[in-house]
Each structure stands twice: as structure tokens, then as C-alpha cells.
From TrEMBL:
This is Complex I NDUFA9 subunit family protein. InterPro entries: ComplexI_NDUFA9_subunit, Epimerase_deHydtase, NAD(P)-bd_dom_sf. Residues 11-208 form the NAD-dependent epimerase/dehydratase domain. Gene3D superfamilies: NAD(P)-binding Rossmann-like Domain. GO terms for molecular function: protein-containing complex binding. It holds the Pfam family Epimerase. Coiled coil: none annotated. It comes from the Bacteria. It comes from Aquibium carbonis.
């Protein structure tokens, strides 16, 4: 009797070398999937291979601005996950070319090959927003659903985890600066969500256990203002800092200068996003289109932040337990 061994499904993860992508890649690899990671610089994606068995994770060059590279990345794939996103524009990396047309191009190639997909969008994605980022994310998700009606759209709030660029960035700033800025008074509300919870939702989409053609709002267990996020971070790194309110007009002036730098700390487009609360919608809660609705219990900041922010404490991992200046 012949023994038939089926080959594990192949998932192409666009942007799999980034912060969210690498956690999705790891979660998929743990489930036994073969994973192809498509990004512009596969030579810089060597950190991914140890997340799976030998040969299980393969980086490949792809740029969403060139359709033929998308076609090549999806050759023989069973599923696609798009985690490509940019926070600011630079050179030919425009919000429209990467987040709208890039997502659309992936979806059209998926449709042509009978592949389904998940699109990582954002809670802030909004076709009517004044922010170019938010509008391009909304356009990307709409184009994906048009081409692949059974696609899954995941819309996370701000995402935290070991390599995040939010808590790490402000904790780094707190090491040197006696003050931390609270833009617009720090009143904007967020629902920080743990990166592994987002990755679990994406992996379940690849498993086929999420309803297709549906958008899920992914938030953590707590809604916190920007000020409260900073207070939580300072508590964990055991430092006292002044939280100074920066009025919107002054923030806009600062951003217009900062955005001239290569990797800007703040842009005027980000200020437009910061002006709007970033929390799970009432409709998503009512309809169960949330992590809890998927049966995933979201991890709290309190449980996770100390596991990676300890390096910003004065005594590093040798905690003193007391807040220092
Ligand atoms: N982080 C958050 O708090 C957050 C919150 C809500 C939603 N999201 C969404 O989650 C997704 C992932 O975010 P992230 O924080 O993981 O971003 P990230 O760390 O900056 O990763 C972005 C990834 O996209 C790749 N990439 C960039 N431009 C590309 C292009 N033209 N073609 C192909 N690949 C390209 C990058 O690799 P190369 O540079 O090598 O190409 C990298 O792998 C994004 O869609 C973002 O909008 C993030």
C-alpha cells in the first residue's frame, strides 16, 4: 500500500520581515505551514529562518510596486497575507502606490490564481479621513474585498510587542529626555493590542476558520488615552518624566520640520491620525468581529510590557522596584 504524504500548505506573507509580519510568520510556521516571505530586502530577513524548521521559511524578493514580483511570490501559493504598510512617504514609496495599489495588485493576482487572502489594515483606515495614510489603507481594504470577496480584513489598533515602534520609541526617548510630549494633551484613545494576538487571528484566517468577506477590529483588553499609555510605560521602566502637553498648532509646526528628515519621528499626516480615537467600533463588538468574538483572549499591556521594556530601566533586568529620575 502506497503511503501518501500531503505537502503542507504554502502561505505567502507580504511584508513578513516587518514587526507584525515576523510574528505571523512564526505563528504559521508553528502550525506547520510552509511560509514564503515576500519583501524588498530578503537579504535582511535572515532573522526569520530560525523561526521554523530547515527550509520551512523562504524569503523572496518582491516589491508591491511591481506586479510581476507579486505574481512570482504567489506562484504555487495556497494563501496570501499582506502585512505591507508604511508610516510615512519617501521616494517612490507613496501611500497610494504601496497601501492602495499594492494591496489591490496582490488581490488581483490572488483572484487570477484562485487564492484567498488576509489584508492587515488598521482601525484608523477610513475613506473619509483627512489623513493620506488612513484613506490609502481604506482604499486598499476595499480593493481587496472587491477582487477577493472572501478575503479577511484585520484592523488592529496600535500594536505592542518586543519590536514595536511605539512603546520602544518613547521608552528610548525617556532615557535621555526629562520630558515626554503629549500631543493635543494626550487625550486620544487607543486600544493597544498584543502582536501575538494579531498573529493568531491572521493564522486562523489562513486555517480557514474566520468568516470570509469580513472585517475584524482587533483591540486589547483596555482602552487607554495616549497619556495613560505613557504613564504605563514610565511605570514599567521605573522612570519619572514630565508629561508636557503640546498644543496641536505647535505640534503641526514641529512635524512640518521633522518630516523633512529621512526617518521622521512625526509627520503632519500622523498628526491627523492622532486626532481621532483608535478603538474597536461598537458595531464590531455587537457583531462579534473582535478578538473576543474569535475566542482569542487578548493579552494586557501589564502582562507584556515588562517582558521587553526592562532594558530601558536604569538597572536593566536587575529591577530596583523603585521609580528613579
Ligand atoms: N505597528 C502598528 O502599530 C500597526 C497598527 C495598525 C496596523 N498596522 C498595519 O500592520 C501592517 C504591518 O505593520 P508593521 O508595523 O509590521 O510595519 P513594518 O515593521 O514597517 O513592516 C513593513 C513590511 O513591509 C515591507 N515593505 C515595505 N514596503 C514594501 C514594498 N513596496 N513592497 C514589498 N514589501 C514592502 C517591509 O520590508 P522591506 O522594507 O524589506 O520591503 C516590511 O517587511 C501594516 O499594514 C500596518 O499598516 C500596524
Amino acid at each position: 500500500m502506497a503511503l501518501i504524504v500531503s505537502t503542507p500548505k504554502l502561505v505567502t506573507v507580504f511584508g513578513g520581515s516587518g514587526f507584525v509580519g515576523r510574528h505571523i510568520v512564526r505563528t504559521l510556521a508553528k502550525r506547520g505551514y510552509r511560509v514564503r516571505v515576500a519583501c524588498r530586502r530578503p537579504d535582511l530577513a535572515g532573522h526569520l529562518q530560525p523561526l521554523g524548521n530547515v527550509g520551512q521559511i523562504q524569503p523572496i524578493q518582491a516589491n508591491l510596486r511591481y506586479r510581476w514580483t507579486i505574481e512570482r511570490a504567489l506562484e504555487g501559493a495556497d494563501y496570501a497575507i499582506n502585512c505591507v504598510g508604511i508610516l510615512h512617504e519617501s521616494g517612490r514609496q507613496r501611500f497610494s502606490s504601496v497601501q492602495s495599489f499594492g494591496a489591490q495588485a496582490i488581490a488581483e493576482v490572488c483572484r487570477a490564481n484562485g487564492i484567498s487572502m488576509t489584508q492587515i489594515s488598521a482601525i484608523g483606515a477610513d475613506a473619509d479621513s483627512r489623513s493620506d495614510y488612513a484613506r490609502s489603507k481604506a482604499a486598499g481594504a476595499a480593493a481587496v474585498l472587491e477582487a477577493v470577496p472572501d478575503a479577511v480584513i484585520l484592523r488592529p489598533s496600535i500594536i505592542f510587542g518586543p519590536e514595536d515602534s511605539f512603546f520602544n520609541r518613547f521608552a528610548e526617548m525617556a532615557r535621555f529626555s526629562p520630558v515626554l510630549p503629549l500631543i493635543g494633551g494626550g487625550k486620544t484613545k487607543f486600544q493597544p493590542v498584543y502582536v501575538a494576538d494579531v498573529a493568531e487571528a491572521a493564522a486562523r484566517a489562513a486555517d480557514g476558520t474566520l468568516a470570509g468577506g469580513t472585517s475584524y477590529d482587533l483591540g486589547g483588553p483596555e482602552v487607554l488615552s495616549f497619556r495613560e499609555c505613557m504613564e504605563r510605560m514610565l511605570e514599567v521602566i521605573e522612570r519619572k518624566r514630565w508629561l508636557v502637553s503640546v498644543p496641536w498648532p505647535l505640534a503641526r509646526m514641529k512635524a512640518s520640520v521633522l518630516e523633512l528628515l529621512p526617518n521622521p519621528l512625526l509627520t503632519r499626516d500622523q498628526l491627523l491620525q492622532l486626532a481621532v480615537d483608535n478603538v474597536v467600533s461598537e458595531a464590531a463588538i455587537r457583531e462579534g468581529r473582535t478578538l473576543e468574538g474569535l475566542g482569542i483572549r487578548p493579552q494586557s499591556l501589564q502582562a507584556i510590557l515588562p517582558t521587553y521594556l526592562w532594558r530601558f530601566r536604569r538597572a536593566g533586568q536587575y529591577t530596583t522596584g523603585s521609580v528613579t529620575s
